[in-house]
Each structure stands twice: as C-alpha cells, then as structure tokens.
Amino acid sequence: MKFVAYERTQQGTGASRRLRNAQKVPGIVYGAGSPTTIELDHNALFFALKKEAFHSSLLDMELGGKTEQVLLRDYQMHPYKPLVLHVDFQRVDATTKITKKVPLHFVNEENSPAVKLDACVVNHVVNELLVQCLASQLPEYLTIDLGNLVKGQSLHVNDVSLGDGIKVVTHGKPNPVIVSANPPAAEEEEAAPVVAAPAAAPTKGKKSEKQNKK
C-alpha cells in the first residue's frame, strides 16, 4: 500500500492542535536514520486504518518526492470522536529484523467434517500471531486451512505453515492452541441422574374413631 506524507516543521502542542483543525494528523518516522516529523491528510489516513493490510504489511511512504518503506507502529485515536490524533511509522529495509503481529485468515471452516458432519462449534482462540522475521519476509496474513478439522481436534502454532525465516513469538508458551472444534452443547451436557424423591413422612391425621369414643 502507498500513502503520501509531508514534512512537518512546527512542533509542540499548539502546532499539533492547528494541524488537527486543518484536517491533518501529526506523525513521526523513526529508524534507519534521524527521526522525521511528518503530517498526513486525516481522512486518507482514517480510511487507510480500516484496512487490514495497512496494519500488517510493508507500506510505501512518499515523502518529499522520494518513496521509502515503512511499517505502521502505533496510532492514537480520540477517546470518543472518530479522529486520529497521532501516528508513528518505522523505516525498514530488506535487512531490518522486525517483530510484528500478523492476522490469521481462516478458510474452509464450513466444509470441515467438524462443522459439516458433526455441527461442531469452531473456536478461534487467537486471530493473529506475533512473528519475527526480516522486513522483506513479512507476510500480509497467514492462511489457516480448516478443511480437515474434525470433532474434538485442536490446531496449534506448530501446525501453521510459515515461510522460511519466519518465527512465531509465543512468550515461552509451548505450542499454544489457535483453533479448536468443540462438539455441540447438547452433547457436552450429560443427562442429570434421576434421584428418587424421599418418601413423604406420615402426616398426623385425625384420631381414630375408637380413640374418639374413649
């Protein structure tokens, strides 16, 4: 994806406020050299942030007539208004080693035996993975094929097909689950055992006729 940025000369709270009033967003680009303060068109950035690829892939930033590759690293939104307040990018090249979250795209879920034959509920435990690789190897997303998923089965990180040089960062967790197929709730619930009601205690009735006669 490509976007256009402009060099920003004025800094500070007042300058940033004036930019936002002019429908601009202040930002910064760091890495591979000196940090550069930039400004972007608010509406263009706002709609770009709605696209998955803008968050997870290399971006071509045009700045001052030159194009360089960057990654979106952070952005700040207004607490309740649809306004982008600030954005951070990182310059990268083919030799830059990065750690970045990559979204998971699940396919063929509806055709799996777990869903088609056993009406299982497929639980997506995670929807993205943190990967470490060279910037040039960063995938836009990872495809998880669920076509062979069966009832009771779980897929783990080690089941994900990764490209050469791409490593999943699990923070010490051994092979965590990413998706599972659970049987329908009706099958999980065991029939409650039938417990016989205790025999009712004899009630105190009226005195017998003989006792009454006495």
UniProtKB/TrEMBL annotation:
MF annotations from Gene Ontology: 5S rRNA binding; structural constituent of ribosome
Lineage: superkingdom: Bacteria
Give the Large ribosomal subunit protein bL25 L25 domain ranges. Answer: 5-89
> In UniProt terms, what function does this protein have?
This is one of the proteins that binds to the 5S RNA in the ribosome where it forms part of the central protuberance.
List the lineage, top down: Bacteria, Pseudomonadati, Pseudomonadota, Betaproteobacteria, Burkholderiales
Q: Set out the biological process GO terms recorded for this chain's protein.
A: translation
Subunit arrangement? Part of the 50S ribosomal subunit; part of the 5S rRNA/L5/L18/L25 subcomplex. Contacts the 5S rRNA. Binds to the 5S rRNA independently of L5 and L18.
- Is rRNA-binding there in the keyword field? yes
Task: Cite the record's Low complexity compositional bias ranges.
Answer: 192-202
Q: Which UniProt keywords apply?
A: Ribonucleoprotein, Ribosomal protein, RNA-binding, rRNA-binding
Name the family. Answer: Belongs to the bacterial ribosomal protein bL25 family. CTC subfamily.
Name of the molecule in the record: Large ribosomal subunit protein bL25
What gene is it encoded by? rplY
KW RNA-binding (keyword) present: yes
Q: Name one GO cellular component term.
A: cytosolic large ribosomal subunit
Q: Which residues form the Large ribosomal subunit protein bL25 beta domain?
A: 97-184
Q: Pfam families of this UniProt entry?
A: Ribosomal_L25p (PF01386), Ribosomal_TL5_C (PF14693)
Q: From the UniProt entry, list the residue stretches annotated as the region Disordered.
A: 179-214
